[in-house]
């Protein structure tokens, strides 16, 4: 039973400590029902701990977590029946085939007519051709898809995926994204942790950025990228770098200037265009080339670092 | 919920059987290891029986020849090798022989005229066990020799009364105890690996986050492992019956005790696997535990002959009681002061206790 009017997951001032080490600190956030929420962040940001807390695997030192209307921990059997989880390390039985892995999982969730349901998820994730292949012979992309298929066996209301495309090639990545979007269209709430900003942009309705176990910002992926601004990379000599820094620093519309191996990366808000910057730069320095692009995740994090803590 | 529990146990059982059927090389090697242990314990019996002893005879007389032949047949721990004194001196120096027995040139004459004869013995006393064997061999050979030639001066008479109506050779004794060691190796390794693998490969996460208690699918998996371990135990048992020609006097009791052992060692393996959580270290631990437990549990000889400390500590392992039952069921030997019924009762108690310990250890890991 889905309740779109209530958040699927709600954290209220949640703090988790393990042996005096704070792994999640004072997190308050609501994750909307029927949407995909991304938890982007570098390694060690607390993404996996955040997801583990949702499924009741972390003891709370303070605060409350509500998942599908139920307080966790503990995560009751009834709640577990409504939640699907894809682990970072897939947790598949290597010696078993795809279909055998799914049948075993079906036995844990007491799925009626398991053979029928297994066939359905195999076909949903384009895995029918790999059904009788042993998991240890599958590529990383297919293993992830099998793990997702397993998490979908019991038609969960909430799907939690830790790094859905970790170690997966570009083609498989896009295929996984397509499957997740298809799931979202059926009303399933999805929470994904990811290292990739493009994944957030392609999939997520909202993002919650964690840094060292703290919630830094919660917004839409587009707003997150806009914080970092569009980026103008300028190739120039070391001497020109100094001149251009002096010239451009303080210019309205420039959010940040970073030195790179090839020259400079200039982050722009919407108030000034890349053309204007290049024209200004050409008047006072020699530049070998330039290009514009969106900010990557590291640059977004650098931009967030500039926020008051 | 009852149906969910049964379904998950059955699911775990089925999945483990499939998984083990795909690990045929592993199963083959574990079973091979069990047979290797039987050979190993046979070697305990064989080593020492082929210790080479040089005999240097400086007397070509008939009594000297008779004495050498008596020496060879009296003590079964030796292989008598006639040599020249130079070759013997060289061999004992290079460590190729245990001892040199030198028959003096006047041996036959001395025997004929009832005079004392001095037999020189040089022993490589690197191993006191061997030295004592040589010391025991000579008097018994002399006594036998005296009997053969009817020398009245040798008046030693041994009146032996056997406690048991039949003799059991050392190797059959060791091999039957070896079956208990095999049960330990096969059952403990298979179950320990099954549980440790769940943690090592993180598949345990699936069990922890599923609606049923993680113990349920694990019970199914262990039941399958125990079934396979019991089936694998048939191989060394057949080797004992048809390879060593040791036929059990009470087959049902033998099967019962080995099956209960398999269950106990499965539980011990489960506890170790859940505790260590890594496949390679847990396999090494099981292997490391197997021989000391075997040796100090009355497997080589009744533990009560090994002194109070060993006898007492032997009671702390199920192997002691299991060896008591299998020696009785195979050979009709009563190797423990306790009755066989007491041993059986203790073994069943061990099964219940190890099941409880395994459940507690596994539950703690899932908290």
Annotate the secondary structure layout.
The complex is a heterodimer of chains A (309) and B (367).
Chain A: E1 9-18, E2 21-31, E3 36-40, H1 47-54, E4 62-67, E5 70-72, H2 77-80, E6 83-86, H3 98-108, H4 114-124, H5 140-152, E7 158-162, H6 170-185, E8 189-194, H7 197-203, E9 206-211, E10 214-219, H8 221-228, E11 230-236, H9 238-248, E12 254-259, E13 263-268, H10 274-284, E14 287-294, H11 297-305
Parallel strand pairs in A: 3-8, 3-9, 6-7, 7-8
Antiparallel strand pairs in A: 1-2, 1-4, 4-5, 9-10, 11-13, 11-14, 12-13
Helix pairs in contact in A: 3-4, 4-5, 8-11
Chain B: H1 2-21, H2 24-46, E1 51-57, H3 62-74, E2 78-82, H4 85-93, E3 99-103, H5 107-112, E4 120-123, H6 128-149, H7 170-200, H8 204-208, H9 215-243, H10 251-276, H11 279-295, H12 308-314, H13 318-331, H14 340-365
Describe this structure as you would to a colleague.
- The complex is a heterodimer of chains A (309) and B (367).
- Chain A has 309 residues and is α/β, with parallel strands linked by helices.
- Chain A contains eleven helices and 14 strands.
- The mean pLDDT of chain A is 88.
- Chain B contains 14 helices and four strands.
- Chain B has helices at residues 2-21, 24-46, 62-74, 85-93, 107-112, 128-149, 170-200, 204-208, 215-243, 251-276, 279-295, 308-314, 318-331, 340-365, and strands spanning 51-57, 78-82, 99-103, 120-123.
- In chain B, α3 links the parallel β1 and β2.
- Chain A binds chain B through residues 55, 57, 75, 77-78, 80-81, 83, 85, 87, 89, 91-96, 100, 103-110, 134, 150, and chain B through 1, 3-4, 7-8, 10-12, 14-15, 18-19, 22-23, 201-212, 217.
């Amino acid at each position: 039973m889905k309740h779109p009017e209530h958040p699927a997951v709600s954290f209220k001032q949640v703090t988790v400590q393990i042996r005096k080490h704070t792994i999640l600190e004072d997190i308050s956030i609501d994750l909307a029902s029927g949407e995909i929420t991304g938890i982007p962040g570098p390694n060690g940001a607390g993404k996996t701990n955040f997801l583990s807390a949702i499924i009741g695997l972390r003891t709370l030192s303070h605060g409350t977590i509500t998942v599908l209307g139920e307080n966790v921990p503990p995560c009751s059997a009834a709640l577990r029946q409504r939640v699907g989880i894809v682990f970072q390390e897939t947790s598949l039985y290597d010696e078993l085939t795809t279909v055998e892995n799914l049948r075993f999982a079906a036995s844990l969730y007491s799925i009626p007519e398991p053979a029928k349901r297994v066939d359905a998820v195999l076909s949903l994730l384009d895995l029918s051709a790999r059904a009788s292949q042993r998991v240890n012979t599958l590529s990383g992309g297919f293993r992830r898809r099998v793990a997702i298929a397993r998490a979908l066996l019991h038609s969960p209301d909430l799907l939690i995926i830790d790094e859905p495309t970790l170690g997966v090639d570009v083609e498989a990545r896009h295929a996984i994204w397509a499957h997740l979007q298809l799931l979202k269209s059926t009303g399933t709430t999805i929470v994904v942790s990811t290292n990739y900003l493009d994944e957030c942009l392609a999939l997520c309705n909202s993002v919650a950025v964690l840094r060292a176990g703290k919630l830094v910002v919660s917004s839409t992926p587009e707003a997150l990228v806009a914080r970092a601004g569009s980026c103008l990379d300028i190739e120039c000599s070391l001497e020109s770098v100094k001149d251009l820094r002096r010239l451009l620093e303080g210019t309205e519309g420039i959010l940040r200037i970073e030195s790179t191996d090839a020259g400079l990366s200039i982050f722009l808000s919407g108030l000034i265009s890349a053309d204007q910057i290049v024209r200004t730069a050409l008047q006072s320095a020699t530049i070998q080339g330039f290009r514009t692009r969106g900010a990557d995740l590291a640059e977004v994090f650098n931009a967030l670092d500039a926020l008051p803590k | 919920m009852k149906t969910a529990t049964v379904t998950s146990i059955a699911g775990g059982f089925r999945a483990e059987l499939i998984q083990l059927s795909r690990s045929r090389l592993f199963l083959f090697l574990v079973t091979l290891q069990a047979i290797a242990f039987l050979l190993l314990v046979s070697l305990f019996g064989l080593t020492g029986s082929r210790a080479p002893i040089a005999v240097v005879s400086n007397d070509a007389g008939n009594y000297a020849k008779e004495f050498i032949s008596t020496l060879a047949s009296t003590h079964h721990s030796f292989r008598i090798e006639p040599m020249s004194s130079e070759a013997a001196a060289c061999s004992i120096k290079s460590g190729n022989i245990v001892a040199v027995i030198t028959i003096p040139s006047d041996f036959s004459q001395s025997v004929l005229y009832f005079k004392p004869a001095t037999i020189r013995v040089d022993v490589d006393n690197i191993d006191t066990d061997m030295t004592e064997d040589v010391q025991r061999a000579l008097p018994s050979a002399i006594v036998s020799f005296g009997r053969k030639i009817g020398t009245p001066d040798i008046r030693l008479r041994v009146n032996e009364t056997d406690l048991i109506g039949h003799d059991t050779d050392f190797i059959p004794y060791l091999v039957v105890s070896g079956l208990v060691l095999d049960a330990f190796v096969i059952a403990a390794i298979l179950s320990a690996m099954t549980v440790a693998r769940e943690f090592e490969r993180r598949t345990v996460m699936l069990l922890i986050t599923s609606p049923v208690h993680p113990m349920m699918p694990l019970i199914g998996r262990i039941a399958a492992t125990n079934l396979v371990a019991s089936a694998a135990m048939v191989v060394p048992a057949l080797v004992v019956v048809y390879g060593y020609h040791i036929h059990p006097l009470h087959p049902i009791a033998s099967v019962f005790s080995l099956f209960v052992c398999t269950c106990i060692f499965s539980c011990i393996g489960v506890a170790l696997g859940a505790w260590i959580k890594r496949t390679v270290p847990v396999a090494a631990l099981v292997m490391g535990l197997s021989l000391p437990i075997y040796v100090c549990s009355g497997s080589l000889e009744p533990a009560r002959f090994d002194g109070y400390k060993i006898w007492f500590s032997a009671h702390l392992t199920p192997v002691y009681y299991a060896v008591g039952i299998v020696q009785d069921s195979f050979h009709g030997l009563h190797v423990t002061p306790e009755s066989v019924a007491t041993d059986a009762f203790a073994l069943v108690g061990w099964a219940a206790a190890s099941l409880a310990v395994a459940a507690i250890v596994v539950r703690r890991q899932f908290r």
